[in-house]
Design goal:
This protein is 12% helix and 30% strand. The longest helix has 9 residues. It has two helices and nine strands. It is an alpha+beta fold and 134 residues long. The model has no long low-confidence stretch (mean pLDDT 96). It starts with 10 loop residues before the first helix and ends with a strand. The strands form two sheets. It has a six-stranded antiparallel beta sheet with strand order 3-4-8-7-6-5. The chain has a three-stranded antiparallel beta sheet with strand order 2-1-9, with no helix packed on it. The structure holds zinc ion. Zinc ion (ZN) binds next to loops.
Length: 134
């Protein structure tokens, strides 16, 4: 499904600011290669924000090692994520997008490690910007 631009972000400015892979993932729904991301094995305390618009999406307390090669979280901030049915590649998956700017983030699956949520948010590292707790 086409990615919208509800915040009227300047696509050209985004392209300049972000790396080419980050731009392609966020704004065109691509996927970064597994094990390539800065935040795949990153466990500092802080918050993960949308790399396109800066909205807060995940807290480090929900991050876990999934072994799948992408940063994984068992929950997202309330209202931060938009969920879309994704039928691409012959699979039925749930795509996750930033609720603020509609940028693609990754997918969410129902095989998470915690009984509380049961969710595994599999998120492209390039879509995230980590801000440590000071
Ligand atoms: Zn965003």
């Amino acid at each position: 499904m086409a990615i919208n631009n509800p915040l009227k972000l300047d696509e050209e400015a985004l392209k300049q600011r972000l790396t080419p892979i980050a731009y392609t993932v966020l704004r065109h729904g691509a996927t970064e290669p597994p094990y390539s991301g800065t935040y795949n094995e990153h466990y500092e305390q802080g918050d993960y924000h949308c790399a396109a618009c800066g909205a807060k999406l995940f807290e480090s307390s929900s991050k876990f090692e999934s072994g799948c090669g992408w940063p994984a979280f068992d929950s997202a901030l309330e209202g931060a994520i938009t969920y879309l049915r994704d039928h691409s590649y012959g699979m039925i998956r749930t795509e996750t997008r930033c609720s603020c700017c509609d940028s693609h983030l990754g997918h969410v699956f129902d095989d998470g490690p915690t009984a509380t949520t049961g969710k595994r948010y599999c998120i492209n590292s390039v879509c995230l910007e980590f801000r440590p707790i000071r």
